[in-house]
Amino acid sequence: MGAMPTRALPAQTRRAPASARGARTRQALVEAARTVFERDGFIDARITDISAEAGVAAGSFYTYFTGKEDVLAAVLAEVEDEMLHPRLREFADRDDPVTVIETANRAYLEAYRRNAKLMGLMEEVAQVDERFRRLRRRRMRAFAERNAQALARLQEQGIADPALDPRLAAQALSVMVSRMAYLRYVDGFGNDSTDALAATLTRLWTGALGIRR
Amino acid sequence: MGAMPTRALPAQTRRAPASARGARTRQALVEAARTVFERDGFIDARITDISAEAGVAAGSFYTYFTGKEDVLAAVLAEVEDEMLHPRLREFADRDDPVTVIETANRAYLEAYRRNAKLMGLMEEVAQVDERFRRLRRRRMRAFAERNAQALARLQEQGIADPALDPRLAAQALSVMVSRMAYLRYVDGFGNDSTDALAATLTRLWTGALGIRR
Amino acid sequence: MGAMPTRALPAQTRRAPASARGARTRQALVEAARTVFERDGFIDARITDISAEAGVAAGSFYTYFTGKEDVLAAVLAEVEDEMLHPRLREFADRDDPVTVIETANRAYLEAYRRNAKLMGLMEEVAQVDERFRRLRRRRMRAFAERNAQALARLQEQGIADPALDPRLAAQALSVMVSRMAYLRYVDGFGNDSTDALAATLTRLWTGALGIRR
Amino acid sequence: MGAMPTRALPAQTRRAPASARGARTRQALVEAARTVFERDGFIDARITDISAEAGVAAGSFYTYFTGKEDVLAAVLAEVEDEMLHPRLREFADRDDPVTVIETANRAYLEAYRRNAKLMGLMEEVAQVDERFRRLRRRRMRAFAERNAQALARLQEQGIADPALDPRLAAQALSVMVSRMAYLRYVDGFGNDSTDALAATLTRLWTGALGIRR
DNA sequence: AATGAATGAGCATTCATTCAT
DNA sequence: AATGAATGAATGCTCATTCAT
Question: Which nucleotide is nearest to A62 (CA to C1')?
């Protein structure tokens, strides 16, 4: 399966640093930006705070980035592999579908929890910037299509409810998991354990798909 | 069913207008605020735009409201009944659970679609203001508890999967519907018809709950 | 003859103040702007200096003007009547054309000298801002046309050289006077007296037009 | 007639390049500067644009020049012969003064037209930098003195109006031509042909000087 | 109650110039 | 000689909020 092929944001950006020193400065800025974003959120983060946190002059920021959105894109690019949607792995006929689903859901919840700050940041910025909204849509579409294929396969095998629209069903169930993760780990809603969440969500998935246990 | 029990936001607010003229001005401001919020979003809306839209002087705004959040609370209070979560009505033993669920989901999707601007506003503002985030949590909890009770009853009757945590399951399924509605009607994701959405979501609900058809 | 009909600059501007207090503040800003512009020139003038000179808060500037160009337009509007190009008054057949020309030239030189700072400002800003360049062209055209008519009349009367293109000739002679005034009073070129300048320029005009003395 | 006696600007400048490579880089910068100045004007031209246009690193600029004024001086030095004022050539008693004047005016207008960008640059920069203002004054003085001598000679010969102050008259008439050229070719005022301009200006010159045709 | 003028904090961004490699 | 990264000063403009009429 490997890493998700999400391309970089089509963000206008500066050219890559030509020297090692430049690469170091750029990196320092990306790390500082992550710190500041996680601490203050996207809207309240000031460019000067990022520069200060990175220990460079205010103007140096613009040597590498065109603005806040641009660094954010760089920050997100760095953690792209962890920014998952719940995704079923390919499974062979002999695999137990319930286990596959459970594994995917649990992995997703745990990744979300680990990167909660960043995931919240994504939601915040998607609310505010069309470019990131587009990115979110693109990612979701990619995941939904993948899961739709897995679901279609289960239907062909007579394992899943054939009456379901595989695309819509896959999307809805993905969204259920990701939104629950958001509410639990970002919004602070409820205090259920990741285990409890994973168990319930998996049971809902399998039931929803009509998979017999 | 009756009115939703969500109390008004504990927003600091000015006293109610004493005169009829004052009442009219206040009302004009609330309506203007809704117009401006729906047009520009919460963050980009400026108090002066609201005053201008209402046809009053800038300063008059503060006679009635303490700030942007305060008017927004007033706007939301006016349309409170339209701000729904998917909710199962009480149902008697003779009712068909599938029909009850389908009706609730369809009604919710349609209400969401009708009030898409406002629902998007809620999401935007929840992202930005803790007080509205709290409001959102409170509402969700109320709905989830209601639906949890309905679900528990279905379990008692042997209709729904007894292995499910009724509270978590109710929350997850509600969240699935409301997030799908947000993506479809606010974010512009996909182009599925409300019928298709309602059908798929209902099928997922019933399957997830283990209700036999 | 009366005031020149030069319309206001098509500059985007704020609405006029509604109260007497507002009118006073606006006026203070216009006067402060003139002071600052004459002292520092257009490019080096800072909005905050103008606000400070007027004794108002920085932000108040924007209650009345949209920017530096906008105040400058207001400053220039106030002194519009003094901002002349050399212009022949209407004259009857019995008037001595030489005297008419001499009077116009002298008046122009004196007005230019009096408003030298402002005239220099005009040249500076025309160099920098297309809107003012347009204004300068428009004014010049208006003056040239007027003088061209006077010249054509002299030609009809057999007083002026009939071989001259009245429009081009009028423009060239006007330009000669105004540029000499600029060099003398703004640029500091030479140290000839206004009398000497007026005498020479008039002699050149009359000779150029072929008027017999 | 020979080269114009205007010395180079007393601009502070770096030493001449020692190596052939250095000479090439310097030359590339001068040419790039001319390109950028003609394209963007003096004020809007950025040093980094000049370096980029020359294909060298930003810092290399300072190996050869101290700043923008300094390169500009180098650019102007390269085209010094083209930066003319209207100037009468020496003429013998047998020459027709009208022809001499006409030739000078036409040559000037054509040179101005050819170098309009550069002439406009000179005006722009004179508005902004005292050093170039001084240069402009010095040139004008040199030309006016030359023409004053020619005029005085015509007066001695009984050809030109003896009542004119030769210096002021020469200056005024030169200024008339050069300003008309500026307005026509830089500012875009009017659309008269160079022929028409030359004809009118010459007629005005000869009339102004009282030369019989 | 309404008016509308005044306040003033707050921050992004550019670009000439330097200087270590 | 050339490179190119780092510096950092400098200022325009918005808009929520107050308060004198």
Answer: E13
